[in-house]
């Protein structure tokens, strides 16, 4: 049996008047000025929020071009990415149908892509975990990689990533994952 606690509601402004507010010594002068009232400063946390798979789009013309094609070679979309982004996150950001059921944890092969040979050779060797997952990928080729493991560099400008005609999702056949 669980126990419930009832807390009395107290307005923050009345609490702030009763106690002096001390600023954390690691806050900069500009942070102190931007936060406004002393009562507000006391309740805010100063660290930056981290988001899983957060991708920012580069300004047009400044990014690394990546071409996505379907299994028949038809161009789906050309996008621009930042250096260091992975193919799976970039595909999700631009609404390209690359599944990624495990969300990049190298536990499935649903983000399998086939890369152009000249760009495939620029990549480091796949890890043992990636190779194990690639063994389960549908339509495996010599230039297959998991999109979650391919981090884009400047040398990969104009790279072609071809999506296979199907994927093998061990979770549930026919269920499409949601992108977080």
Instruction: Give the termini distance in whole angstroms.
Output: 34 Å
Helix content: 10-25%
SSE-based structural type:
alpha+beta
Radius of gyration over all CA atoms, rounded: 24 Å
Give me the strand/helix succession: HHHEEHEHHEE
The best one-word shape is: globular
Largest sheet: 5 strands, mixed
- Residue runs with pLDDT of under 50 for 5 or more positions: 1-17, 21-32, 45-52
How are the strands of the largest sheet arranged?
2-1-5-3-4
Based on the structure, what is the oligomeric state of the protein chains? single chain
Number of strands: 5
Instruction: Work out the helix count.
Output: 6
| Beta-strand content estimate | 5-15%
Q: Quote the average pLDDT.
A: 75
Quickly describe the structure.
The protein is an alpha+beta fold and 180 residues long.
Give a topology summary.
Elements: H1 12-18, H2 29-34, H3 38-43, E1 64-69, E2 75-81, H4 87-93, E3 112-115, H5 117-120, H6 128-134, E4 144-146, E5 159-162
Parallel strand pairs: 1-5
Antiparallel strand pairs: 1-2, 3-4, 3-5
